[in-house]
Amino acid sequence: MDWTELLKELADAVAVRNRKVASLRTAGSRVAELTAEALAAGAPGPPLRRILATMEPLVTQERPHVCGQSPLVPPKHPAQMPQRTAVTPPVLLQPPSANDAVGHPEPVRFSLHEAWHKKILPWKPSTTRTYMHKRSPKRGIPVPEGKLDRHTVRYTEEELRIWRAAWEKQTSPATGGRVPQGPPQASG
Questions:
Q1: Closest Cα to residue 35, out of 128, 169, 144, 157?
Q2: Coil, strand or helix: which one is 66?
Q3: CA-based radius of gyration for the chain
Q4: Are the C-beta atoms of residues 130 and 145 closer than 8 Å to each other?
Q5: Between 159 and which of 4, 10, 37, 155 could a Cys-Cys bridge form, CB atoms 3.0 to 4.6 Å apart?
């Protein structure tokens, strides 16, 4: 096959992939909307968690690969990254002011590190990531989606408390789970 034909096929494959990613984002938004509506309508937690546990987790965020670059050695001339067509607004860490036109304030969000230090989570961030993204899906525990803020995923306190309760219920000392340890206490 000629390289020009391969490039045409590649362009078509990228277009198909982009349509599927857009469709997945739309479906994810719809799942979030329906979940919020079900909770607001008084849906009990266990059936809701059972349904959400069947969702396939998104393992990693895709990043365009540039041939010849090593993640360990920076290139002499940085490759141009493709520009995004849609700009993702930054996550608000504090509720908007009264002067803001938004009707619903954005909840405060925490990184796993911040949640550990505020004692929302009893485990170090690395341990929480293992429990949340590797073990929870295997055990059928729904994982909070959070929101990506630059390179850090941030979660609401409610998302983290719901996930933690489900995790601790499933891994309680009666079932052989470890008793969690909190962050170190500041000395004197």
A1: 144
A2: coil
A3: 21
A4: no
A5: 155
Contact at 8 Å (CB) between 128 and 112? yes
Q: Which of 130, 112, 137, 107 is nearest to 122 (CA)?
A: 112
Q: Give tens-digit pLDDT for 152-162.
A: 899 999 999 99
Beta bridge partners of 156: 109
Residue 154: beta bridge partners?
147
- Tell me how far the alpha carbon of residue 98 is from its chain's centroid: 29
pTM assigned to the model? 0.41
Cβ atoms within 10 Å of 119's Cβ, excluding its own: 9
Instruction: Classify residue 160 as exposed, middle or buried by CB count within 10 Å of its CB (0-12, 13-18, 19+).
Output: buried
Measured CA to CA, the distance from residue 83 to residue 105 in angstroms comes to 30
Query: How far is Cα of residue 161 from the mean position of the Cα atoms in its chain?
Result: 15
Closest CA to 120 of 92, 162, 151: 162
Spatial separation of the C-alpha atoms in residues 167 and 171, rounded to whole Å: 6
Contact, 141 vs 116, CB < 8 A?
no
Q: What are phi and psi of 93, to 5 degrees?
A: -90, -15
**Strand pairing of 152-156 and 109-110?**
antiparallel
